[in-house]
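Continuing the batch. This is chain 6 of the set; chains 1 through 5 are on the previous pages. Same settings as before, nothing changed between runs. Recording input and output for traceability.
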Amino acid sequence: MFLREIVRRLTDGLVLAIPDLAERVDHILTHQVFGIGITQLTALLARRSVYCSKFANGPHSIARSFTTEDGNIWFERTEHTWGGGKREFRSDPLTSEEVIVYTNRKCIYCGAGEDDYARGDDLETHAYAFIHTDDIKARIAELFGDNMQFDVIIGNPPYQLSDGGYGTSAAPIYQMFVEKALGLDPRFAVFVTPSRWFAGGKGLDEYRKKMLSDHRMHDIVDYPKLYEAFPGVKIRGGVSYFLWDREYDGPCTIQTMWDGEPLGAPVARYLDAYDVLVRRNEAVPILEKVRARQEPTLDTRVSAGKPFGLRTFFHGKPTASGLKDPVQLFGSRKITWVARSEVPLSDGWIDQWKVLMTAVQGTSAAVETKFLSKPIIAGPGTACTETYLVAGRFDAEEEATRYAAYLRTRFVRFLVSLRKSTQHATRDVYAFVPDVPLDRDWTDVLLYERYGLTDDEIAFIESQVAAHDDTLFDEDGADDSDE
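Output for chain 6:
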């Protein structure tokens, strides 16, 4: 569709330069517009759409000068290049001779696992030629038969490859397409990608750092609402597109879209003001007021994942009967009991007061409004599986209770939302939340006053974050989600 729309616009735009329609269309198709199919089917569809024929040199093609069936829309099957892995010695079942095999190998270019993507000739390899190279300029010359300089590169590349996981646990690959495209030194680049790179995403830390520090980023248009950019397609964290301008050096203009309409005025700001991209322009002055106090933040207090070394699927006994030195264990959807000796890590934490937060908080809803689950206050003699993080540890119940109440405020959950792009609520999402003194019972009113927020700023926070109900936590310790 990109190619077809570009051809349509060039056909209108070059009418004065090349008055004859047939000559003009032939020039555009043979000299100006090039495409790389990600599969054989998409390449055929693109040729049919652009040339009016799946054969560029066929009798029905509107291009007159091609001598090949592909024209300028290239596709050839590409294979992965496997590397690494574990060397194993096995016995050949026919000869009984010992042979060396390699297992768990991955593609050295895209990271695809051999177990998932080593396929026969009848299946797509999903080894995309554009990113399976060390020299992108040489690769493009090989594809199109000449040294090429592209003025404009536009793409909506494949977003991820399965690595044995799914959803947000799958490995993103769209950043590889962006990096290769920018390596071709175009005048402009426009890419549609998930917005997850703004603040999180598996394997995206270096990409995010490079993109935020690149002052050639001219515009970002962001669609944070689930399903809006691509109806029916669940892309957690939303979708955005950007314009990169080689000749530009300045702030990036950011516009948020909601239900097809601009949400607020676009704002030009430097993306590297923080280590993540704060996607809503209205949030920036609030965050600036909070950070102006230069207080420590909660990411130094919150534990890493698997705080006691116990996996999500680990469960103890339904009662403490018969256990030596029993420990109450908060796990996925239920509370069980284990012997203290069964807890492999953080033994000293067991005897402290703790505030637990679920490590995953999110829903299938189009708009997330809670961002964090309700805190759970766990007294001495307790531990948890990796379903939870230990958000704080205390010597007294009063401190734990005040801390839990603080985490329930809209103020805290709003600051978390600025870094939380998926359902995962890791320690990093707390990095904007100030670690306030627990000398009082913090409420939103007191916090708004502490940081000098205006009525408009308060209204914005409360429009984004829903209040929790009055119960401190669900009786079964379950995630209080938006669903």
